[in-house]
TrEMBL record:
Cellular localization per UniProt: Periplasm
Positions of heme c 2 binding: 135, 138-139, 182
Lineage: Bacteria, Pseudomonadati, Pseudomonadota, Gammaproteobacteria, Chromatiales
Gene3D superfamilies (alphabetical): Cytochrome c-like domain (1.10.760.10)
Protein name: Cytochrome c553
Length: 207
C-alpha cells in the first residue's frame, strides 16, 4: 500500500511539473526583472538573512510553482504576496529560470554534534515510532530533491528558514504541498526533531 501511495504522489508531482514548465523561462529576461527580489534574496539568490530562503540553484519548476502559488493565494507571506501580485503571469517563468541558473552557497550551522546526529537520523531514517517519514525519500540522499516530481532541493538551506517552514506545515499555515505530504510529516514531528533536521539540512553541500 505504501508503495502505491508513493507512486501516486510521484505521478501527481510529474504532471504538475510538466504543466508548470510548458514554456521554460529566459534567465536573461529573468535577471532584468529581478530587482524587486534583490533586497531579500540578493542578486544571486543567496540570501544573507537566515529567515529568508536561498533560492539560488533551486529547480526551475519548483521556483515557478512557488511564484504561481503566491500570485494565486495558495501560499501566503506578508512580503512575497504583494511583490508577486504586481508581476505579470508571463514574467514568472523568467524569474524562476534566472534564479535556478545561479549557484547556491554552502550552508552554515552552529548546532552541536549531538543535534546534527539527531537531524541526520531523522533525515535518513525518520521516526518509525511516531510515523515520521524519512526526508531522504523525497529530497534524496544529498538533499537535491526530485525535479520531476517538484520536490525541492533543500541542501544548504538556512536552518532558520527550514524550521519555520516545517512549523508552518505543521500548523497549517502553509498548505501548497502535493497530497498534504509535508503537512502529514511535519504534523508528527517534535520541535526537537524539526530543529535538528533543519540544522542538518544546512550542512548538506549545495549543488
Amino acid at each position: 500500500m505504501k508503495k502505491l501511495v508513493l507512486i501516486a504522489v510521484a505521478t501527481l508531482g510529474m504532471s504538475m511539473s510538466a504543466s508548470t514548465l510548458a514554456e521554460p523561462g529566459d534567465p536573461v529576461r529573468g535577471k532584468e526583472l529581478s530587482s524587486p527580489c534583490v533586497a531579500c534574496h540578493q542578486a544571486d539568490g543567496n540570501s544573507v538573512v537566515p529567515a529568508w530562503p536561498k533560492i539560488a540553484g533551486k529547480d526551475e519548476a519548483y521556483l515557478l510553482k512557488q511564484l504561481q502559488d503566491y500570485k494565486a493565494g495558495r501560499r501566503s507571506h506578508a512580503l512575497m504576496n504583494p511583490q508577486v501580485a504586481v508581476l505579470e503571469e508571463e514574467d514568472l517563468p523568467h524569474l524562476a529560470a534566472y534564479f535556478a541558473s545561479q549557484t547556491a552557497t554552502p550552508g552554515r550551522t552552529s548546532a552541536s554534534a549531538e543535534k546534527l546526529a539527531l537531524g541526520r537520523q531523522i533525515y535518513f531514517g525518520g521516526n518509525a515510532a511516531s510515523g515520521v517519514a524519512a526526508c531522504v525519500a523525497c529530497h534524496g540522499p544529498t538533499g537535491k530533491g526530485n525535479p520531476a516530481a517538484v520536490f525541492p532541493s533543500v541542501a544548504a538551506q538556512h536552518g532558520v528558514y527550514t524550521l519555520d517552514q516545517l512549523q508552518q506545515f505543521r500548523d497549517g499555515l502553509r498548505a501548497n504541498d502535493p497530497a498534504r505530504m509535508m503537512r502529514n510529516v511535519a504534523g508528527r514531528m517534535t520541535d526537537e526533531e524539526m530543529s535538528a533536521v533543519a540544522e542538518f539540512i544546512a550542512t548538506l553541500p549545495p549543488r
